[in-house]
Amino acid sequence: AVFKPSSGQRRLNELFRRAQKRRIGRNVVRTVAQQKDYMKRVRGNGGSRSALKPEGILIMGDYDTHRAVATQLGLVAPREGEFVSVRVAKRALHHHDSPYVVLEGQPWVVATPDDPPETAPLLPSLKS
Questions:
Q1: pLDDT tens across 36-82, in order?
Q2: For 89-94, which contacts have Cβ atoms below 8 Å and span 24 or more sequence positions?
């Protein structure tokens, strides 16, 4: 299913949709994207981060700030050259004691299957 789209960008988007909550390495990204500047396909500015944001999906990279977000959400933190994607939702009563992170002034949790999709917040952009 990941390799079905003809566009490298669409293949990467599908990878990050399907392989949530697990580390995805740079070599996997390169293989799926099949393009020279494959890392550009992950970033904001039209990459997977931008494309999946309306679906509520965050893609955390190896910046210290991104690793901290993953850890606060109770996820495995990406190591150097890795990414971790996850669908998030604004924290609500039914999330009880779920781990959360504050982004853009709001508490966010890992979305449950019952949570409707909502636009994901921006990740901190600083390396530390």
A1: 666 666 766 667 888 999 999 999 999 999 999 999 999 999 999 99
A2: 89/56, 89/115, 89/116, 89/118, 90/118
Query: φ, ψ for residue 30 (rounded to 5)?
Result: -60, -45
- Give phi and psi for 83, each to the nearest 5: -135, 150
Q: Tokens 């669908």 map to which residue?
A: 87
pTM of the full predicted structure? 0.88
- How is 26-63 classified by DSSP, letter by letter? HHHHHHHH-STTGGGGTSSTTSHHHHHGGGTEEEE-SS
| CA gap 10, 29 in Å, rounded | 12
Please answer whether residues 89 and 56 qualify as being in contact, where contact means their C-beta atoms are separated by less than 8 angstroms: yes
The burial class, CB within 10 Å (0-12 / 13-18 / 19+), for 18 is: exposed
Q: For the chain, which domains are there?
A: 8-110 (1.10.10.10)
